């Protein structure tokens, strides 16, 4: 029972094959739609990005960040980034360095352009003042990246308290099951355009399928927690967590657990937690089945759709005084859901799995830090029931937490931003203004 790799992969992969067969007729359309745009992401052409990064105007902002500003970022010397096979001398800004009087900048090479646009954090040995970096021409989707604030938001004079507060805050985006870095880009861009540092963290689906208690998945969370703790070593630095679905929320719980074991004072540096499309605070097989089905089928899943018009196969659902048409899953998806639900009914009751989940869920339910919380959810969510979210919100309020919530009513799972960006960003802005960018203390 030390590894769930074998027992999880075989039935789940078999179910996934069945599901993929049900949508194979649409495969060519999927390829074409992938080339033009992704349903839950901003468009990203990774192959052309690497070859054209120097010419791409999206990277031009890096040239406005001076060496003197970057020298204040203690994490810079620990950054490693996948870029094309290049060999450039890279300045180690931890060394004493004085820029020339003409105001030279650090974005003259394509390596640095890519480095500070989106960096993979990793522990590394101390470097010399100049070093040569050789990196393979391609790499898989990485686990997490660091995104710097846009230069127009940086207050060089240091006279703005609000800008100073943002520069000392990292927003940690914890992705949903099956999400990739590109899916979190639009959220990261919104935060960086307002002056925040951002880390985007995602798990490869294959890594979740081969989960072991204490295995690679938890080691990856340990690595992230260690980097966050390093960031907080300097006085005045803070964190804001923004989680997606139960996967992101459980990852947040695992990080809280690491902080508790390492240094309880780290919990006091968390200024806020934003929970998108979660939680269900129990190991519910139906929720897990819905989540994995949506991850396997992606845009073909019924979880991604809400119909405004009626079909014979749709079900009419009353939400408050309004109704919307809830589409029924296709036969193949219904079969997949049934198989997955039976499967997780067994898996979630394996003692070591149940105990591990119970520990994290208990911490999230009754041991959260005292920071304010914002819950963004929807009555139309086919993965996370709105009733479960609202029940959890009430328990948090009774426990004395400052809690805000917004029901988007008609938007699908983890798709609220794309469907109603104005409402979504308004909720984020108000939350950040009221709790993160002020010096109010929440006991």
From TrEMBL:
<protein>
    <submittedName>
        <fullName>Transmembrane protein 53-like</fullName>
    </submittedName>
</protein>
<dbReference type="InterPro" id="IPR029058">
    <property type="entry name" value="AB_hydrolase_fold"/>
</dbReference>
<dbReference type="InterPro" id="IPR008547">
    <property type="entry name" value="DUF829_TMEM53"/>
</dbReference>
<keyword id="KW-0472">Membrane</keyword>
<keyword id="KW-1133">Transmembrane helix</keyword>
<dbReference type="Pfam" id="PF05705">
    <property type="entry name" value="DUF829"/>
</dbReference>
<keyword id="KW-0812">Transmembrane</keyword>
<comment type="similarity">
    <text>Belongs to the TMEM53 family.</text>
</comment>
<dbReference type="GO" id="GO:0005640">
    <property type="term" value="C:nuclear outer membrane"/>
</dbReference>
<keyword id="KW-0539">Nucleus</keyword>
């Amino acid at each position: 029972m030390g590894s769930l790799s074998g027992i999880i992969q075989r039935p789940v992969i078999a179910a996934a094959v069945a599901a993929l067969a049900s949508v194979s007729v649409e495969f060519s359309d999927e390829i074409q739609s992938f080339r033009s745009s992704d349903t839950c992401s901003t468009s990203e052409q990774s192959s052309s990005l690497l070859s054209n990064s120097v010419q791409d105007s999206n990277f031009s902002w890096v040239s406005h960040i001076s060496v003197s500003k970057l020298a204040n970022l203690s994490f810079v010397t620990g950054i490693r980034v996948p870029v094309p096979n290049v060999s450039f001398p890279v300045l180690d800004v931890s060394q004493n360095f004085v820029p020339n009087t003409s105001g030279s900048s650090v974005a003259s090479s394509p390596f640095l352009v890519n480095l500070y646009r989106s960096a993979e954090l990793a522990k590394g040995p101390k470097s010399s003042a100049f070093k040569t970096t050789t990196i393979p021409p391609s790499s898989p989707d990485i686990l997490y990246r660091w995104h710097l604030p846009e230069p127009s938001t940086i207050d060089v004079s240091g006279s703005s308290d609000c800008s100073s507060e943002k520069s000392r805050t990292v927003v940690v985006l914890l992705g949903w099951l099956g999400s990739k870095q590109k899916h979190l880009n639009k959220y990261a861009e919104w935060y960086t355009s307002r002056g925040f540092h951002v880390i985007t963290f995602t798990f490869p689906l294959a890594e979740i399928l081969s989960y072991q208690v204490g295995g690679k998945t938890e080691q990856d969370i340990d690595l992230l927690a260690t980097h966050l703790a390093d960031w907080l070593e300097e006085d005045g630095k803070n964190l804001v967590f923004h989680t997606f679905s139960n996967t992101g929320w459980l990852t947040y719980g695992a990080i809280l657990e690491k902080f508790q074991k390492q240094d309880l004072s780290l919990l006091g540096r968390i200024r806020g937690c934003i929970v998108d499309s979660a939680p269900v605070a129990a190991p519910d097989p139906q929720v897990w089945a819905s989540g994995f089905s949506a991850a396997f089928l992606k845009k073909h899943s019924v979880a991604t759709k809400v119909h405004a018009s009626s079909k014979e196969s749709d079900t009419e659902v009353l939400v408050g005084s309004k109704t919307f048409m809830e589409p029924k899953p296709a036969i193949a998806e219904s079969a997949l859901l049934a198989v997955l639900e039976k499967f997780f009914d067994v898996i979630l009751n394996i003692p070591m799995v149940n105990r591990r989940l119970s520990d994290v869920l208990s911490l999230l339910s009754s041991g959260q830090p005292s920071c304010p919380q914002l819950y963004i959810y929807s009555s139309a969510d086919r993965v996370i029931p709105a009733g479960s979210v609202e029940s959890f919100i009430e328990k948090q309020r009774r426990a004395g937490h400052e809690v805000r919530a917004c029901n988007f009513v008609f938007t699908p799972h983890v798709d609220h931003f794309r469907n109603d960006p104005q409402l979504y960003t308004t909720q984020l802005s108000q939350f950040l203004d009221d709790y993160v960018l002020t010096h109010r203390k929440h006991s």
